Amino acid sequence: MAKGEGEVRRSIKIKLIRHAESMNNQMYRDARVLYKGGTPDFDLDGWNHYIDQHRSADPGISDRGHLQAKKLCEYLAPHLNNQASHPVQIITSPMRRTMETILPTLKEMGKDVHVIVNALYHESEGCYLKDVAYPGMNQVEIKNFLERQDGLEFVAFNEDPTVGWYAHGTKAETRAESEERASAYYTWLCEYLDIQIHAADDDDDIYDAGVTLPSEADEQDHDKFSPRQRKRRTIICIGHGDFMSLVLKRVVAGFGHVIEHVGTPHRSAFVHYNTGITELEYFGKGRFLVMSQNNTPHLEDEFDLLTGGSLKDGWSYLIPDEEIMLYQEVSSYFADEVDGHIKEQAEALRNLYSSDHSFLARQGSNVDSEAAKNTEMTFVVKRGLQVVGCISFNDETGIISNLIVRPSVKGSEVDRDLLNAVLKHASSSGIHQIKAKNTDDYTELYEAHDFVLSDDGFFVRSIA
């Protein structure tokens, strides 16, 4: 393929890997058995006492975790030696369990790796016990722990090498602080990768991997161990289950609507087994392909080593309880002010459930003109960031259209709240009469709000 604008798609390979089973992972598993977690006989007091006595602020990996780390090394080292350019770049959290996980691979690879210890990449909540912060290891201690004095870089650490990576913490990190840090780490990672992509003209290990040279015709893309003619720039990121999930949400959504509310767990999350691998391709300027997620090829047929990725391992607690997914107040927007994700969901509801439009029909034909955009309004009710109902109203014509409520929330008064919001808006705007097209679904609603069916098939109501 000739080199030209829009033709060459250089990319860097990235592997996100969760740490091996930690002693805390093992402790929680043991506590679940001892105190009958998840059953009607769950002993909460016994559970809390056991956790208080056995939890570590910065644990190492368990005996099973050491076996997982060994298996990971047996998979990673030959793969990287045969298919990755050198030095291989490894980004690791400063927490003990991540560094213990990658240590066998570092020893096997020798000096031909460049290690970055990034203090932003630690697990959510930080380094703490009973909400008391601990400083964590400092740069000197990490160098000694990894047995590396050279080829080691520190990011986001205190300038004083004797100060621990979490010395700034005063307690366990809040959810909002974890989200803020995930955004900072994602920004750093993209910038780190962009610098490499921009220098690609001089580096033969960053190229368009979608183009196969004639001499590579016999290479099997899914063979992770066979030598390759062209070795690729490869980044290994050793991190943590929850924080990797926060980062992956930004990989998928960029800087879109991914920030969680304070006190609200994830609406969605990415699950990883211990040493589970997610593979990405990075094309520069924040563009990612998610190639695979949570793979464990090194643990095939080793079911006793497959830990940390089930609902029993606490992942279900990342999903909000119903009680905190309450309806918000009705929000209103002019047609040209609707946020992207709200507009997308409102149009999807109209396409699915409106009797006025068939699926994939073009929406908003009545708001194409600039004048119409200044008079057409959208009102929505949200559950979290999920739109559960919407209604359109035109200030100039006084016509209500597209009153849509998701079937799963019918009977929850969402339709009433939407209509009341329109009536209140019309009254405050000095509109004297509003009309709504008659639909079987909302006849009772309109009649209950003093609308009268006219001869032209519209429900009509005067505004005092």
Task: Give a structural overview.
The chain is α/β, with parallel strands linked by helices and 464 residues long. The chain contains 11 helices and 17 strands. It has 2 domains: 312 residues, 3-Layer(aba) Sandwich (Rossmann fold); 137 residues, Gcn5-related N-acetyltransferase (GNAT) (Aminopeptidase, 3-Layer(aba) Sandwich). The longest helix is centred in the middle third of the chain and has 24 residues. Strands 1, 2, 3, 6, 7, 8, 9 and 10 form an 8-stranded mixed sheet that branches. It has a 7-stranded mixed sheet with strand order 11-12-13-14-15-17-16, with helices on both faces. Strands 4-5 form a two-stranded antiparallel ribbon.
Quick gist of this model?
The protein is of the alpha/beta class and 464 residues long. Helix content is 31%, strand content 19%.
Primary descriptors:
single chain; 464 residues; alpha/beta; Rossmann fold; Aminopeptidase; 2 domains; eight-stranded mixed sheet; seven-stranded mixed sheet; 11 helices
Q: Which helices and strands appear, and what pairs or packs with what?
A:
Elements: E1 10-18, H1 23-34, H2 44-54, H3 63-83, E2 88-92, H4 96-109, E3 113-118, E4 128-129, E5 132-133, H5 139-146, E6 152-155, H6 175-198, E7 207-208, E8 234-239, H7 241-253, E9 277-282, E10 288-295, E11 331-334, H8 340-353, H9 370-373, E12 376-383, E13 386-394, E14 399-405, H10 414-428, E15 433-437, H11 443-448, E16 452-453, E17 458-462
Helix pairs in contact: 1-2, 3-4, 6-7
